């Protein structure tokens, strides 16, 4: 299953820190983490002693693959390790993601600063990783002891427990932003150029003339202010040429009433034509 934003014709972004899921409890959460990784070009998924084992078969496999929403290449490429030590052995720098202060005198970083530093050092050839603990309990102190620094998230202190995939998603977002820049993936397509001032002024004269005929500008002493307010309202819309034509056509129809249906006119004409 793939999502609406999936486009296999476009090049894949890869790299980034290894995502190390320590003793994950649910196969579906592994799938959701893979999807979050794929969103932001992370491609190194490492699993430490998953509770349900890995790779999965049957219903567990189906649930994980469905949750991955097309990021199955990450599930199929995931590496399994018996211990955290083995999972991080080749890494130069490791973050431990946790919501609690552990009293281990380690530097504490928010995702933006942590992933900004990691993006630069990964580009220079280092290998970084982030540890994420089991869904129910998080990392234990021995896991955290293997890390160089703490990664934590600025969240509501009364409810600081993040879903596992959400934590991976936030981390991936900050890495991708640092590594590739915060550039919108698409822009609004300009279908009509901005209206020239001559066009908008002509429209204003047309509109205000009919409003005057119908007594809109009352009392007369307030006409200048009302006129300015009306024009400023339209100026704030940053009207395009098509916008002006549409507004003009709408007002004409309100003034002149419904347009006659050509098919109705044709049928009426046929009825009036005498038989030979």
CATH class (first level) name of the largest domain: Alpha Beta
Number of helices: 11
- What is the SS-derived class? alpha/beta
- From the 3D structure, determine the CATH topology of the largest domain: Alpha/beta knot
Q: Which of globular, elongated, flat, extended, rod-shaped describes the shape?
A: elongated
Largest beta-sheet details: 7 strands, parallel
Structural write-up:
- This protein has helices spanning 27-39, 58-68, 72-77, 84-87, 111-123, 141-145, 164-180, 197-213, 223-236, 241-256, 262-272; strands at residues 18-22, 45-48, 79-81, 93-97, 108-109, 128-132, 149-151.
- It is of the alpha/beta class and 276 residues long.
- The protein folds into 2 domains: 18-180, Alpha/beta knot; 197-258.
- A 7-stranded parallel β-sheet has the order 3-2-1-6-4-7-5.
- α1 packs parallel to α2 and α8 packs parallel to α10 (241-256).
Key traits:
11 helices; alpha/beta; seven-stranded parallel sheet; 46% helix; 276 residues; elongated; Alpha/beta knot
